[in-house]
Structure formats: C-alpha cells, structure tokens
Amino acid sequence: MLAEIQVRPVERGEEARYQEQMARHHYLGELAKIGETVWYIATWREQWVAQLSLSAAALKCGVRDRWIGWDFRTQYGRLKLIANNSRFLILPDWHHPNVGSRVLSLIERRVVADWQARFGHPLLLLETFVDPRRFHGGVYRAANWMELGLTQGYRRTRDGYSADIDAPKRVFVRPLCRAAQACLTHPDRARLHLTGSPKIMLNAEQMRTLPDFFNDIPDHRRAEGRRHRLPVVLGIAAGATLCGMRGYNAISGWANDLGAKARERFGCRREKGRYVVPSESVIREVLVRVDPVRLDRALQAWNAAFGKEDNSYAVDGKTMRNAIDAQGQQAHIMSVIGHETALCRTQKKSVPCP
Asked: DSSP string spanning 83-109?
C-alpha cells in the first residue's frame, strides 16, 4: 500500500473539501492561505489519505535561529527560504503504520521544485512545531527530521505575543539541501536567488527611537484635522522602507500589518481603545511636503546610531527623468552607497553647468 501513495498540490476545485476536512478532523482547525503557502494531499488510488500545509516560517524561534547561526538582520531577508509545516492531518481511516513518514518523505522529494515554480526562489529548510501534550513527534523522527529543542512557550496573538508562557513546543527541522545552515547564512544573496536590497527586521528599541530622529523637522501641515504627529508618520515610513517596502501603497500596507505592540512603540495615536496608523494619503502628503534636507540628516543620524559600518563606498549618478529646471537643465542625483551595508549614506542633487 505504501508504495502506491502519491502526493500532489491541492487543485483549486478541491480547496473547499480540504478546508472542510481540516476543520473537522485537525485539533487546530483549518488555516487560511497567508503569504507563500502550498496545500498538499496524499492519495492512494484516488482516495485521500492525508493533508498537509506548508506556509511561512515562524518569525522568531530561538532554538532554530541558534542552530542556523544567523542574527535578526540576516534572518529577516531569508525567512522565505524556510517553510513551516503548519498542518499535518492523517485522515481517520488511514492511521496505519508508516503512512505519516511515507507522506513526509514524498513531500520532501517534490516541494523544492514546487516552491521554485510557484514563488521563484529556492526552499532550503522545513520546520514544524509539535505540542508535547498531544504528540511525541515520532512521525517526524521516522522521516529523519531533527529535533532541536523547545520553544519558550509564548504564543502569537493579535497584540504581539502572549504575556504568559503556554506549553512549549518541540521544534523539528528537515534540511532540503546539503549544508543548509551555511547556505542560509551565505553572504552572497545572488547565490540564493534573493533579489533586491537586503531587508532588516526592526527590533523594539529601533521602533521606539526611530520617530525621535524626526522631532526637529517642521510640520508644514495645517493644525486642523492633524491626527498623527509628524515624527510618527516619518518613523513608520522609514521603518517600512528599511524593511523593504517601496511605494506609498506598500508602506501603508506594512503600517496596517503592525501589531498593537509595534504601533505603541512607534507612538501611534490611540482611539477607542486601539492604536491607529496613518493612512496612505497621510503618508503621501507628509513625504511630498517634508523638507528633504532635514529628512536626509535625520536618516543619516539613524544610520550612524544603528547602521552597520562600511569599509568602502561607491559613488553613483543618475539622471532624473523629466526633471528640468527653469533654465532647461536636467537634474542629476549623486548617491553614496556603502559596499557592506548596501545603504545609501547620502544624496545630492546637481545641475551641470552649460
């Protein structure tokens, strides 16, 4: 029987059935698709045997992060190289020996190609969390997953993390390539097919102090109807940009996704018992009207306080499209970029002499 079990992604027309059975039979219930997620089913002669979900990796996991050997700066831009086995359900009529480990091994054989085809980047590691009050993790051990230890026991909530320790979970991982730890921490992002600038994850101190760097910038908005302080708006916009967001819509989306604790740290306004973030229109208005020289100085001050050190710099110039001054000269932007951090240290606008 085991040799005839096959694994494949769930088709669109099967998703309702997948969710209904997950809600009925899994003790945690169904789980919506959020971010990069692939649902799988295992079948035997067209009969459904098991259901499995792979989704975004846990944002924080101490034993996993220590095993990999990365810090939070490296981790945030590379979390998408890890997938979390967030649900694993063997259907009631299929609780036979070795079915679970067989399904896990079949998933392992095909998930790398599936992930690359769907999301355009590799997958290097699988992780999962097992509640020891219910299970011992034997199916993962049988499939050659490694147990790393226990989580601290805090649960993710709508407001951040629970204040009290819940039952710690056992953490299991399964590398999908040789030397997965070395690959996940490799300094060459291009080797990992990671495009764009490296992202960081802001810690609590950075969230609290970032708005302070903009306190000396004058607010040119009218006082009437001004709901959000200028340092808060600029702090959120800067934080979103540091985390890789580009454009007003992306910055606004990042702000809306902030939890209650993060909003409090940024100094957001509290209304009707909850912290509110500035809207996209407010963010756009502030960024369009802010003094660019003062803003640049504030950002350089943040870089000096929190940024990495650069041993060398690159100077690059770009011609601004459709930027013509009153004399008909086209404006140019000169930027200084740090080699080690890939951060823009300063910019200067200039117009060449005729």
From this structure: EEEEEEEE-GGG--TTHHHHHHHHHHH
Rounded distance between C-alpha atoms, residue 171 and residue 151, angstroms: 7
What is the predicted pLDDT for the residue at 158?
43
Phi and psi angles of residue 42, each rounded to the nearest 5 degrees, phi first: -105, 135
Closest alpha carbon to 170 in 61, 37, 68: 61
Q: Measuring CA to CA, how many Å separate 344 from each of 166, 253, 300, 336, 347?
A: 43, 24, 9, 6, 8
Instruction: Give φ, ψ of 45 to 5 degrees.
Output: 50, 50
Give the model's pLDDT for residue 200: 64
3 state SS of 124: coil
Give the Cα separation of 336 and 13 in Å (integer).
52
Q: What is the mean pLDDT of residues 169-180?
A: 95
Give residue 19's identity as a one-letter amino acid code. Answer: Q
In contact, 173 and 146? CB cutoff 8 Å: yes
Please report which confidence band the pLDDT of residue 159 belongs to, taking 50, 70 and 90 as the band edges.
very low
C-alpha–C-alpha distance, residues 36 and 31, integer Å: 13
Question: How does strand 156-157 pair with strand 47-56?
Answer: unpaired
* Segment 184-207 mean pLDDT: 74
The angle at the Cα of 254, spanning 248 to 255, to the nearest 5 degrees, equals 90
147 beta partners: 172
Pairing of strands 82-90, 125-130: parallel
CB 322, CB 308: distance < 8 Å: no
**Hey, what are 125's tokens?**
């590691």
Helix spans in 172-217 (H): 180-184, 204-209
Q: Which two tokens stand for residue 250?
A: 């992306």
Residue 57 DSSP label: P
Could you give the dihedral angle defined by the CA atoms of residues 185, 190, 195 and 196, in that order, rounded to the nearest 10 degrees? 80
Q: Residues 261-271: what's their mean pLDDT?
A: 91
Number of other residues whose CB lies within 10 A of the CB of residue 79? 18
**pLDDT beyond 50 at 157:** no
- Stronger pLDDT, 328 or 345, i.e. the higher one: 328
- Rounded Cα distance between 115 and 302, Å, is 37
- CATH architecture observed for domain 2-192: 3-Layer(aba) Sandwich (3.40)
